[in-house]
Amino acid sequence: MEVNASILISVGIAAVIVRSMRQFLDLPTRMPHLNRLIGYFWVPGLLLYLFSLLIQWKTDQLDEIYTLFLMAMVVLVLVRVQDYRPARTILLAVVPYVAYSAIELLSGTLSSSFMREYKNLFSNSQGFAVIWLVTFVLIARKQKKQLEAERVQREAEEKERREIAAQNAVLESMVAERTSSLTLQTEELQHALEELKTTQAQLIQAEKMASLGELTAGIAHEIQNPLNFVTNFSDVSAELVMELEEEQQRPERDQELEAELLADLKQNLQKITHHGQRAASIVRGMLEHSRASTGERQPTDLNVLADEYLRLAYHGLRAKDKSFNATLTTDFASPLPKIEAVAQDLGRVLLNLFTNAFYAVQKRKEQGETGYAPTVRVATRALPGGGVEVRVHDNGTGIPEAVRQKIFQPFFTTKPTGEGTGLGLSLSYDIVTKGHAGTLAVETEEGQGTEFIITLPAGQ
Fold it and tell me: What are the backbone angles phi and psi of residue 45, rounded to the nearest 5°?
């Protein structure tokens, strides 16, 4: 019965070993089939136990046979999972002990005297095998912990990668949505920009038409003078022709009178021609101002251009307000070198500056200031190097400091709604600076007056 009990104890120990091996090697996950197979470890033990009861065979080698079977089963399992590094270490730990157990069992079966003779050797070998087994089991446990830590780290990294991938997917979705939104906004802005350009072109045209209307009013008054001269001298010439015809029909003709009449008639015709050319020049200037600029530069006398547009701007304002009067003073340098410029463009600039000057002095006059005399002054001078300078000064209301830096910005105006588009000075600035490589500056003192200074380089 003692032998039978030892077999049962060996089966219990085997249960503990199998359970530990399953957990250590994670057999249910790694090799489910092998895990189920080793679950029958108790069958050989039970058979040996029944066999010992049947034949009443009492020998100490029964539990050694079962232990050797168990160790062989462990080796088989370790060989099957040797791709797992701790399993290889356990295999290396078990092999010496299995070899010792097999040799001991075989020696005891063949010769008990041999066992007694080399009892110390077998005891030392058993101790070495046990120490080897324990040492490598500890190493295997350390390896398992290290692998477990690496697995946990890999899982954490994998989880982090999945989270990053999920975040990237969300970000890509947000970027795609934002890109789509920006694309739509860009298309809307492009459409708005096109509409703005169209509106700007219309406003620029309206500004040109407004200046053309003011110019036309001035021209209508200015052209009246030469037309009156033409009409008057034509009437006088007609009377002279009639007197000449009457003198030619008399029996006794007065040669001196006829010569005097012919001289007067010739002088009248010359004056008619002069004033007709003056009227033609005004009409030609109006046509040049109204047509689109060709950009072709020609030698231009700024004295003539400034004088003509000053008078046209003044008479244009008087056509709107008959009660308005101002003193016009000119200080034209003589001689003034001609510059290569687009005359109709510079004419628009000068007309705008003159119109603004008359507007400023008119507003100051409306304030009812005692002793105030509206004055607009235009001066030109030659610059070193061949350039010229034009100064347009008025003693009007001046420009406030707060808006001084904005006056050349498009659509900015200090005039009430309906009296200005805010494009006059902006277009003038572009014409002078971009179109003619010059400068347009302003000097002003609020309540005292304003002076615009145009500098233009010499023609190439």
Answer: -65, -45
- Annotated domain spans of the chain: 2-117, 296-460
Whether the pTM exceeds 0.85: the reply is no
Q: Nearest CA to 203 among 408, 415, 22, 423?
A: 423
CB distance 444 to 393 below 8 Å? no
Sign of CA dihedral 51, 55, 56, 61: negative
How many Å separate Cα 373 from the centre of its chain?
Answer: 54
Closest by alpha carbon to 328, among 349, 343, 308, 342? 308
What is the CATH number assigned to the segment(s) 296-460? 3.30.565.10
Residue 335: cis peptide before it, omega within 30 degrees of 0: yes
How far apart, in whole angstroms, are the C-alpha atoms of residue 236 and residue 234?
Answer: 5
The pLDDT averaged over each successive group of 10 residues in the chain (460 residues) is 58 71 72 70 66 56 67 75 75 74 67 65 73 79 81 88 90 88 88 79 60 57 64 74 77 76 77 72 59 68 88 77 86 88 85 88 87 92 88 90 76 57 72 88 89 83
Residues 6+ away with beta carbon under 8 Å from 311: 218, 222, 328
The pLDDT value given to residue 416: 55
Q: Cα–Cα distance between 44 and 66 in angstroms, integer?
A: 7
